[in-house]
Design a protein that fits this description.
With 258 residues, this protein is α/β, with parallel strands linked by helices. The chain folds into 2 domains: 167 residues, D-Maltodextrin-Binding Protein, domain 2, CATH 3.40.190.170; 76 residues, D-Maltodextrin-Binding Protein, domain 2, CATH 3.40.190. The chain is 35% helix and 18% strand. The chain is built from 11 helices and 10 strands. It has a 5-stranded mixed sheet with strand order 2-1-3-10-4. Strands 7-6-8-5-9 form a 5-stranded mixed sheet. α6 packs across α7. The longest helix is centred in the N-terminal third of the chain and has 15 residues. The radius of gyration is 19 Å and the shape is globular.
Length: 258
């Protein structure tokens, strides 16, 4: 590796973009003139953690391109619903998306592996697999039929077991509990007798308030506290078996990317 390429890699890593930035800014389309891309997300506007990360990515793409490629962010529900980001990017409604891969389990079963799986890789292990262990190539192959190019775009680290309205003293206490969960972790809760309910992040707190769900797992203490889950479900359990890692993804419409 040359000193020049090493310095460029260090710069991109420090910017928080890494390979996503390198790919976006080398596209010939940018050289032909300024343009604006839309980024849709699965997060409420300005949501602590994931929502802020999405805005940071949009801002950095705009800044690093010198304004030749500006990115306008649309929070969940502003352009498309939270759980329709994948289809919006693949279909060309938006050029970019910021979301999490395990939301697309119904479209591509293996998508869950690119966010996290129960008892699976930690955050650093996951990044090593994507960057050095062939994970990116598998991810690209999985999303190619949908006209989407994926990149890692943030990581929340190990996540918690969840917030519950009632105290848990044994495995039996999970029976009949309706818990907001996503991916294979939700299937494990089902195996333990609970009912897994997939809700968009912005609907979790209202769901706890109105009785749609009895419990919820989302991210970690800092983000969860900001969403106010503790106000409706005061019992918090950890560590998590269902999400040892929490990789977010940047989706790019492949046609636009190329």
């Amino acid at each position: 590796m040359t000193e020049k390429s090493l310095s460029r890699r260090k710069f991109m890593a420090a910017s928080g973009l890494g390979v996503a930035g390198a790919g976006l800014f080398s596209t010939p389309a940018i050289a032909s003139g300024a343009r604006q891309w839309k980024m849709v997300t699965s997060w409420p506007k300005g949501a602590p953690g994931v929502g802020v990360t999405a805005q940071r990515l949009a801002d950095r793409i705009t800044t690093m391109s010198g304004g030749k490629l500006s990115v306008k962010l649309y929070a969940a529900g502003e352009l498309v619903p939270a759980l329709e980001v994948f289809g919006a990017v693949g279909g060309g409604t938006a050029e970019l998306g910021h979301t999490a891969s395990f939301f697309w389990q119904g479209k591509a079963k293996a998508s869950v592996f690119f966010t996290t799986v129960p008892f699976g890789l930690t955050a650093l292990e996951h990044m090593a697999w994507i960057n050095q262990g062939g994970g990116q190539e598998l991810w690209d192959k999985l999303y190619q039929p949908f006209d989407i190019k994926p990149f890692m775009a943030g990581n929340t680290g190990i996540q918690m077991g969840g917030w519950f309205k009632k105290e848990l003293n044994s495995l039996d206490d999970l029976r009949g509990v309706k818990i907001r969960s996503a991916g294979l972790g939700g299937e494990l809760y089902e195996a333990m007798g609970a009912t897994s309910v997939l809700l968009p992040p912005g609907d979790i707190y209202p769901g706890l308030q109105n009785g749609l769900i009895d419990a919820a797992e989302f991210l970690g203490p800092w983000s969860d506290r900001a969403f106010g889950f503790y106000k409706a479900a005061p019992y918090y359990y950890w560590p998590s078996f269902n999400k040892p890692n929490g990789t977010a993804e940047c989706l790019v419409n492949r046609t636009a990317f190329e």
